[in-house]
Amino acid sequence: MKKAYLLILIFCSTLLIYANDKHRVIILADMGNEPDEVQQITHMMTCSNEMDIEGLIAVTGKYLRPESKEEYRRVNHPELFIEILDAYAKDLPNLRKHASGWPNPEELRKVVCSGQKGYGIADVGEGKSSKGSKLIIDVVTKDDPRPVWIVVNAGSNTLAQALYDYKKEHSKTELQAFIDKLRVFENGAQDNAGAWICSNYPKIHWIRSNYQTYAYGGPGGTDGDITTNLGPHYWKPYAYSVTGQNEWLIKNVMTDHGALGKVYPERRYHGFRDGGLGFMEGGGTIPWMGLVNKGLFDINHPNWGGWGGRFSANKMPDFWSRHVDIKVDEEKETPFYTYREVSDHWVDLQDGKVYNNNYAPIWRWREAMYNDQICRMDWCVKPFKEANHHPVAAVNGDDSNSIIRISALAGETITFDASSSSDPDGDELIFKWWVYEEVGTYSGKIMISEPQQSKTKIVVPTGAGGKQIHLILEVKDNNAIASLFDYRRVVIDVENIFVKQESVQVD
């Protein structure tokens, strides 16, 4: 039964471009700088069925560079990628029992290489091409329309070299087409090349994270304090400390969890407090984590939020590196523009604590992310019946991974039905509908009827014409191992037309 009135735009979902595709990703990481890089990449391999990994490039950064006082940290270490891939290959037969889409380890080994050997922009220029810079060009220029998500988990001078080389050999139009395919997430601004790139290639899509990037396990609070501000406590029953996090990892990741569990190290390094431990996974997990949930996170809209954090809708000037020496260099490139972190308001329902800060866009998903890690590590060793698997969130019969976008009229009542959502293990499903207020452009309150039922209605406010509303469906399974989540984002574009009506419903 459909109800509609004159001038009403009938409810219809339009999938956003690329929403159903896997995202292409290149990782630049200072492998060997400290153990968190190995933690991050090992974790990523348990999620690798959700993305197309097209480059694993060992690079330099602030701490791993030829000038380091420690010999091991003077050179790149691509062999650490290979060790992780060897472990992944051993666990792959069991991983395939739980999900499809896993990459071939032999193909992944082919995209492992080193980038620039020197530090920063000083190692960029004529005759300084590296295997890593060439790989970036090869990936971006493939006959593939999808953008390339480039994670910079160290210095960005290898990407700078790729841009330098491509510009030298191509027209302005070709260069812009190359830049248009890049989606860069820079973790911590760990050399002076990022600001140089953004200054010299001002149209580049560049996210800079100085805070949220550390929020998977931290951030640790004030500089040097890694024990007192670790964010919401979702590694219980272990203590609220980095030692407690490490004990959680020993149980759920490192012990009896296959070859990947064996290569996953403690983040134990001199200079850290609490017995030499640092908070888990450092700053390099969040930059790729958003790619896991395509029904929630959109790489073209950094302000929409998701497991990869939330950033400004427009690029902002001169978001400096937190490293004083790098900031001095960046001041020579001013103005440069990047997407920068923004804050969320979030209430942690486990203890009622309220967060209003720029870590909350990550912390609000922490329970789901940690449970995801628990269950994916189980996939390395357990049979299907002894593991938990993700529910499938469906909206009005659409059970794809896509973000849904619809048009609506001010004053409408719109019905949404998630009753066709499912769970591969037959688990009970728990539903939650909520409006992501910080993302939408309508500042008033929006009524949701029965937000914890599979079916709900929202009333589009009469004053919302020309605005955008983001409705999130969160589906959680009830499983004793650890509850897993799936999401669907519904983007509602409200037309500048008001028609009084009872409701709009689509079966």
TrEMBL record:
<dbReference type="Pfam" id="PF21027">
    <property type="entry name" value="Sde0182_C"/>
</dbReference>
<dbReference type="InterPro" id="IPR048527">
    <property type="entry name" value="Sde182_C"/>
</dbReference>
<dbReference type="Pfam" id="PF07632">
    <property type="entry name" value="Sde182_NH-like"/>
</dbReference>
<feature type="domain" description="Cellulose-binding Sde182 C-terminal">
    <location>
        <begin position="413"/>
        <end position="494"/>
    </location>
</feature>
<protein>
    <recommendedName>
        <fullName>DUF1593 domain-containing protein</fullName>
    </recommendedName>
</protein>
<dbReference type="InterPro" id="IPR013783">
    <property type="entry name" value="Ig-like_fold"/>
</dbReference>
<dbReference type="InterPro" id="IPR011483">
    <property type="entry name" value="Sde182_NH-like"/>
</dbReference>
<dbReference type="InterPro" id="IPR036452">
    <property type="entry name" value="Ribo_hydro-like"/>
</dbReference>
<dbReference type="GO" id="GO:0016799">
    <property type="term" value="F:hydrolase activity, hydrolyzing N-glycosyl compounds"/>
</dbReference>
<feature type="domain" description="Cellulose-binding Sde182 nucleoside hydrolase-like">
    <location>
        <begin position="24"/>
        <end position="311"/>
    </location>
</feature>
